[in-house]
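Holo prediction. Input below; ligand is iron/sulfur cluster.
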Amino acid sequence: MPNADADDVAAAVDALADGTLPDADARVDHDEVQASLPIPSIEGFAGERSVLARCGWTDPRDPDDYANAVGFSDADADAVLDAAEGLRGRGWGDWCADEPYADLWAGVRERDGPTSVVVNAHGNPGDALLLESDPFAVLDGASAAARAVDADYLYLYASEADEAALERARDAAAARDYGVPVEVVAGPDVYRAAEPTMAIEAIEGNHRLEARLRPPGPEVEGIYGNPTVVHTARTYAHLAGAIHGDAPETRVVSVTGDVADATTVELAESDTVASATAAAGVDDFTAACVGGKFGGITTDLDVGLAPEDLDEADLGTEGVVEVLGEDRCPVAFVGQRTNVASETNCGRCVPCREGTTQLTEKLRDVYDGTYDEGGMTELMGVMESTSICAFGRDVPRTVRTAMREFDDAFEAHADGDCPSGTCAVGGTQ
Ligand code: SF4
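Structure of the complex:
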C-alpha cells in the first residue's frame, strides 16, 4: 500500500485481526519509482530532518532506492569543494570537529602519495544509525570527498560492537561502483578507538591503539604515512545533502543513559539540548552529561546545540546527551567516569595516563573525608593543556562541571553524607 496514512494502517490492523486482510493474490505490483517511500517531513517535532530524513524510509540494502529518492552525486572536485565551503565537521571522531574542512581538503588534493578518505562511525549512536539505515547517503558524501581530494582509497570504520552497521556498510560497499575502492574495517569496542589518529592505527591493523603526536595531522601523515582525511558519518551525510542542495544547519543528537528508550534525533542548531531530551520523553532527572562520555555535567538543558553555545556552557559537542536519572549521584558518576578513563586511556602521554589515575584517587579521597578542590583543579588544568589528544583533554571537563554544578554534594560526601542516598560514604566507594 503506497503512501499509507495512519487511517490506512489502522484499517489494515483491524483487517488482520478480523482475518479479512487481502491475500497475496490481491497484491498490486508497483513500479520502482512509485514503490520508493516518500521522504518524511516532521515539522514541529524533530526540527529540520535532513541528514536522518531517509532513515527508516529508504531501503538501506538497495542503492536504487537512494538513487530514486536523492540520486548519487557525480559532482566533480571543484563542485564538491564549493558545496563543502563553510561546512564543519561533526563529532570527536572527526579530525575537523566543529571546524570548516574545505580548505584542509584543498591542501590534501595538492599533496603527493596515495590518499585516503576515512568514514569514522566508531562509537557514536548517530553515526552507527546512519551506516545502518542510510549507508548510501554516507557513501555518496564520502565518495564525493574522495573526488575532491583525489583519493585512492575509501575506508568505512566502525566499532566491532556495531555489527548491524558493519554488515550494512559491507553490503553497501559491494552494491555499486563508487569510483574508488571501498574497504570496511572494524575497530575494537573501546571509546578511545574513535579518536581520529587511533582510527588510523586500527585501519592499519595495529593491535595496540595509541594516539599519534601532532603536528603533522592526518592530512599530511595519515594511513601508512600518506595524506588522509578523517570525518564522521554525520559529516559525510551532511555534505551529501549540501551537494544535493539540502544542508540546513542541523545537529544529530543521541539521548542515552537513564531513558526508557535511547533516541537519536536531528534538530536545528538553534534548538536546545532540552528539545532533544523532550523527544526522548525525559521529564525528571538529576543532571545530564552533554557531549559524550567525557562531556559536561549540567542541570540546565536550555542550551543551544550550536558548537559555540555548547562551548560557552562548558559542554561537549559530540552529539550525545547522557541522562542521569533522579536516583543518581553525580559524585559517584564522575568517579566512575574517571576510573574508566584511567583504565582505558592509551597510555601514550603522562598528563592523561597519570592524571586520570590521580584524579580517580582524589575522587576516592572525597569519600574518605578529603575534598581537595584546589589540587583537583590544578591537576585538571595540566591535563587539559598538555594531553596529546582529546581523550585526556576532555576528561577534566566532566569533573570540573560536576564540581561547579554540585559543589554542595562534593562537600557533603567529604562530611560523610550522600545527598542522593546512594553512596556508601566514609569508606571506599
Ligand atoms: S590523552 Fe590519553 S588517550 Fe590521548 S594520547 Fe594521551 S594517554 Fe593516550
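The first helix runs from residue 6 to 18. That is the main takeaway for now.
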